[in-house]
Every structure is written in structure tokens, then in C-alpha cells.
């Protein structure tokens, strides 16, 4: 029979052999391809249920009939599951911050607090275990209640409640902490303190949207500015003030571990409309004014710097500060001189507050370098380079302006128009490959994508289920912009290996973010985020570092019962799912918003609830 078939084939004419298939044959072939594709997706999908049957249970529309639970329960307490590839780390690592490890930091110089900077473990030192939540961990209070309350079990540290009792930072009340809103320089509360600032600086007209708080404590200043539509990047080192940044994050307030030392802050130039230091203990006048020069780099043209605490109002406070009048007067004089050398204008000194303003362009400042010899303007480094980039003692030049009234780099719209207006960096053509049209298209695209996410995970539509969000590959900030009307905040990360540096655009939209290399740990505590969005992260980092190390870091910074949304090529997501399902996560692949024929898919994952014993 085989021979007959072969003979018959060889007798076919050339015309018959080249005959095109009929429409009927093409249709049959297409149907068969689709069926085999859907069967393949079905085979890679989970068939296991949650350890505690969810009520209510979320139904996902996908290529299969299954369920995935995004609701919170915090009742499942499994500490030993022998079938899992990744064991739990020891309970002593429940607050592990790999790149700010207290023991490792002691190996580095104390000068300028360099030992408090990022010092990440080498590849051979990486831990391949799951960081546990402390025993008794509970999901944080919903926003805005969380601004004032946090569970004691989540951050079991009483030290600040004793050390800062008089300053009203934090109090212990039974099984919870209460944050009265106080600070070292505002024991009567952040609201009263901010009201004082508002008499000197416009805080409600939308002209100020992004702020940075250097040495933030428990971030009450940033927490209370949110009611004025100002979002603050608060940072403080991991030091003797135990868990101050962790408290901020438990409150649902944006914060990072960070310090002003030898490296630039991990933010682009011209990022913040306002900078703040309230007794932050940063030696502004030392090291040739290097720290104030760094604040100048990240301040927008016309931005404000607010200083309270030593040495401001030293004539009233010098006895309480246990310093001499001469010492405090000399420090203030030195700060005034550095600010003047940066061409800042002192707006007002009133009570415990002093406020300076950066010029809107550098036309006059460059002219007066003939008289003021130091600092000179920088000539080499990229002003937006800020990942392990050393600080300099030179002024970061603003973009050229044609006249003294022009805002260098372009004037921003007021919030909220600023969110969707085309950013000046794009209008100027300085972002390669991004035009005003592509920016507007990207904004609309992410509205559609987030709407699809909300259909797939109905918890996203519930206003108080999530609070702290992370976008691991933010690009133009479209994901965050689509959540503008929800009570959430988004940390927009632009990876250091991204083909285009777009973090400046993110800030020009009135959003916040940071640089990050995902081959290293993030400068934050475990259990920071309620939801993580990873768009093409593993395609970007293909062959650069291990997939499982990135996923273990995601697990570290994700809260129990937190959600991850992966978006990537289906082959990549199948590999991700294989690892995720060995990390006490439950996951499933669902279709792209444009339907099942797209190779790009979405992997939804939920971290199950478990704690240290």
C-alpha cells in the first residue's frame, strides 16, 4: 500500500502538485490549530484548589473552567510542606533586607554613612528560601484607617513608642499601634505643621504634586500630604530607629529604605516639586555642600526646599538641643552660603521653618559663576543617571532657556491635568522613540489593560482591597495612571537595563518611582506591596540573572494573600508558573485582552497565607 501511494504521488502532474488548497481545507486547518493551541494552554493550567475553600470565590474568564481566590482570609498557617521546592527561611529573617543587611553593612566605611548604603549579597550568598511573615500577621487596616493604625504583630517593635513618646510618633494600644501624626519638629501633629507650611507655599492649587522627605521617620509628613493631593517619596536608612520605614509602609504611605551618603539618590533630575527635612540630621553644609547639591539635582525648576529643626530657630531651641549658640549660628550661616551658591532664593524663615526656592532656569546662575567660583556646573555625567552613581560637588545644569521667564525643560500643567498632559520631556523629543501621539496611545492602552485586569480579578474593582502597588517595568507610567481614581499608590520602577530611561516622564506626570536592577533586591522591607505588576520583566532580564531569584525577591516584598499580575510571552509565563507554583503561590494563565490568539498572555498569581511558627 505504501508503494502504491508513492507511485500515485509521482504520477501527479506539476499543475496538480502546485494546486492551492481550497477555502474549506484552510478553514479545517485553522480550526485544528486553534484546538491544539487551546489544549496546550489547558494542560499548563492548575487543577488544584486553595487549601481553605474561598468564600466568596472569584471566577476567572479564561480558556478553561477554574477559579482563583483573591480575597483575604489569613487563616491558613502551614509552616512545613515537604513537597515544596522552596523551604521557609528561619524566623530570624522575617525582616530581612538583603541589600541593607545590618551585619554586612559593618564591613564598609563609616565615613559619610557609606555603610548604610546598598551593599547587596554576591550570587553565592543569595538565599533560596521564602521569607516568613511573623506569627500572628494580619492584613493591614484599610486605607485611610491604616494611616493611623497598624497591627502590632505585623511590626513587633515597641522601641520607637518609648524613644519618641514625647514627640507623638507612635503609641502601642493593645494589639495595635496608633500613629498620632507627630514628629520630632511637629509634636502637635503633621496636619498643624503642614498648615504652617501652607501659609508660605501653595499646597492646594495643583502646582506642587511630588515631594521628597529626607529622613522621614514613620512618614507622617507624607501621609498627611496625601489629603492635599501631594504624593511624597519618603526615605530613611535602616538604623537605630528600628523599622521606621516598615511602619510607614504598613500605614499605606509610600516609602523606601535610603540614605544620603556617597551615591546619588535613585531618582532622575528635576523629579520633585518640593523637598523636606525635619530634623533629619543630614549635615547639609559639610562635604562642600554635596548633599544640598544632590537635593538641587532632584528638585524641579522653581521647586522648594523646606528645613525645620537644627539649626533653624536656634535662638529659641539651643538649650534643648544641647549645643552652643556659636555652633548653631555657624551651621546656619554655612547652609545659607551653600543655598546661595546654588542660586536658591530664601523665601521665608518663620518660627521653626525656613524655605528656599530653586530658580526656574540657570541663565543668571551661569552668569554669576564669574563671581561665585564654587560650585561650578557639571559637564560630564548624565543628570538622570542615578544607580550607584557617585554624587558630585557641581551643579546639575538645567536645560537651556531662551529668556529669564522661561521654565527650563518646559512648564508642567497643574494636577490633575498633569497626569494625562504630554510631559515636557516628550514634547522636547528627548525620550527616544516616544512622540506625543505614542504617549497618548499608551495612556489609552493602559486604561484598557487595567480594565481587563479588573475583569479578571474582581478584587481590583473593590476600592479598599489593595493599597501599595508596584510596577516592576513602568515605562511611561500608564499602569499607575490608570489607577488615578482608586485609593492606591504605585511605585513605578524603571529597570536600569531598560532600553530608554523614562523615569523623568513618570515624575513629570505627577507620579513617583525609582530605578532598580531586578538582579538585586529592592530597598524595602518584606511584605511591602499588596499587588505587583510585572510587564515583560522576564523577557527583559532573559539571560541576565536567574528567574527564580527575581521571583523569590517578589515573594519577599509581597504581602501574604497579595496578588501578582505577570504579562509576557506565553512560553515565558509557563516557565514562571513552574517556579511560582513551588513558592506557596496559586496561579493561572489567562488570555490577553485582545483574545486567545495573542502570544502575549497574563499570569495571575496569589501568595497564600502562611506565617512563621
TrEMBL record:
Its EC number is 2.1.1.-. One of its GO terms (cellular component) is endosome. One of its GO terms (biological process) is methylation. It is an enzyme of class 2 (transferase). The chain crosses the membrane at residues 23-42. Its main location: endoplasmic reticulum. One of its GO terms (molecular function) is methyltransferase activity. Pfam families: Methyltransf_29. Belongs to the methyltransferase superfamily. This is Methyltransferase. It comes from Acorus calamus (Sweet flag). The lineage of its organism: Eukaryota, Viridiplantae, Streptophyta, Embryophyta, Tracheophyta.
Amino acid at each position: 500500500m505504501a508503494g502504491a501511494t508513492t507511485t500515485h504521488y509521482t504520477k501527479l502532474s506539476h499543475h496538480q502538485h502546485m494546486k492551492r488548497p481550497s477555502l474549506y481545507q484552510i478553514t479545517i486547518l485553522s480550526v485544528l490549530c486553534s484546538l491544539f493551541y487551546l489544549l496546550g494552554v489547558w494542560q499548563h493550567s492548575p487543577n488544584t484548589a486553595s487549601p481553605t475553600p474561598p468564600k466568596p470565590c472569584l471566577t476567572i474568564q479564561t480558556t478553561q473552567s477554574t477559579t482563583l481566590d483573591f480575597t483575604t482570609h489569613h487563616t491558613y498557617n502551614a509552616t512545613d510542606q515537604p513537597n515544596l521546592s522552596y523551604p521557609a527561611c528561619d524566623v530570624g529573617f522575617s525582616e530581612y533586607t538583603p541589600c541593607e543587611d545590618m551585619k554586612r553593612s559593618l564591613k564598609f566605611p563609616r565615613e559619610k554613612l557609606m555603610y548604610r548604603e546598598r551593599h547587596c549579597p554576591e550570587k553565592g550568598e543569595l538565599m533560596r528560601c521564602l521569607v516568613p511573615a511573623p506569627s500572628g500577621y494580619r492584613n493591614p487596616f484599610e486605607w485611610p484607617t491604616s494611616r493611623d493604625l497598624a497591627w502590632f504583630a505585623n511590626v513587633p517593635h515597641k522601641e520607637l513608642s518609648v524613644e519618641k513618646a514625647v514627640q507623638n510618633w507612635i503609641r502601642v494600644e493593645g494589639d495595635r499601634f496608633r500613629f498620632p501624626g507627630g514628629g520630632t519638629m511637629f509634636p502637635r501633629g503633621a496636619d498643624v505643621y503642614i498648615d504652617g507650611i501652607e501659609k508660605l507655599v501653595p499646597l492646594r492649587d495643583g502646582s506642587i504634586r511630588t515631594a521628597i522627605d529626607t529622613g522621614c521617620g514613620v512618614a507622617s509628613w507624607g501621609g498627611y500630604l496625601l489629603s492635599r493631593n501631594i504624593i511624597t517619596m519618603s526615605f530613611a536608612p535602616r538604623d537605630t530607629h528600628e523599622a521606621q520605614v516598615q511602619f510607614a509602609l504598613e500605614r499605606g504611605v509610600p516609602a523606601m529604605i535610603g540614605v544620603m551618603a556617597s551615591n546619588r539618590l535613585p531618582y532622575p533630575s528635576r523629579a520633585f516639586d518640593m523637598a523636606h527635612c525635619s530634623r533629619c540630621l543630614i549635615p547639609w553644609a559639610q562635604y562642600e555642600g554635596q548633599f544640598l547639591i544632590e537635593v538641587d539635582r532632584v528638585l524641579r525648576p522653581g521647586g522648594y526646599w523646606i528645613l525645620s529643626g537644627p539649626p533653624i530657630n536656634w535662638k529659641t531651641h539651643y538649650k534643648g538641643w544641647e549645643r552652643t549658640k556659636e555652633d548653631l549660628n555657624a551651621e546656619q550661616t554655612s547652609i545659607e552660603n551653600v543655598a546661595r551658591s546654588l542660586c536658591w532664593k530664601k523665601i521665608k524663615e518663620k518660627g521653626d521653618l525656613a524655605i528656599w526656592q530653586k530658580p526656574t532656569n540657570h541663565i543668571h546662575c551661569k552668569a554669576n559663576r564669574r563671581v561665585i567660583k564654587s560650585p561650578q556646573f557639571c559637564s560630564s555625567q548624565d543628570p538622570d543617571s542615578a544607580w550607584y552613581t557617585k554624587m558630585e560637588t557641581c551643579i546639575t545644569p538645567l536645560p537651556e532657556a531662551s529668556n529669564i521667564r522661561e521654565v527650563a525643560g518646559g512648564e508642567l500643567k497643574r494636577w490633575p491635568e498633569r497626569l494625562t498632559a504630554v510631559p515636557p520631556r516628550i514634547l522636547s523629543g528627548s525620550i527616544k522613540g516616544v512622540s506625543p501621539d505614542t504617549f497618548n496611545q499608551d495612556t489609552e492602552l493602559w486604561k484598557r489593560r487595567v480594565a481587563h485586569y479588573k475583569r479578571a480579578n474582581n478584587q481590583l474593582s473593590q476600592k479598599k482591597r489593595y493599597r501599595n502597588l508596584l510596577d516592576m517595568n513602568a515605562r511611561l507610567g500608564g499602569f499607575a495612571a490608570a489607577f488615578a481614581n482608586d485609593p492606591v499608590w504605585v511605585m513605578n520602577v524603571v529597570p536600569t537595563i531598560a532600553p530608554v530611561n523614562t523615569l523623568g516622564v513618570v515624575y513629570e506626570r505627577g507620579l513617583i518611582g525609582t530605578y532598580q536592577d531586578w538582579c538585586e533586591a529592592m530597598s524595602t522591607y518584606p511584605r511591602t506591596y499588596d499587588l505587583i505588576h510585572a510587564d515583560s520583566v522576564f523577557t527583559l532580564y532573559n539571560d541576565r540573572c536567574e528567574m527564580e531569584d527575581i521571583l523569590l525577591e517578589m515573594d519577599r516584598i509581597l504581602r501574604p494573600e497579595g496578588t501578582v499580575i505577570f504579562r509576557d510571552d506565553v512560553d515565558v509565563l509557563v516557565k514562571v508558573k513552574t517556579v511560582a507554583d513551588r513558592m506557596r503561590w496559586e496561579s493561572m494563565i489567562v488570555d490577553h485582552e485582545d483574545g486567545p490568539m495573542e502570544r502575549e498572555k497574563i499570569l495571575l498569581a496569589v501568595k497564600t497565607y502562611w506565617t512563621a511558627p
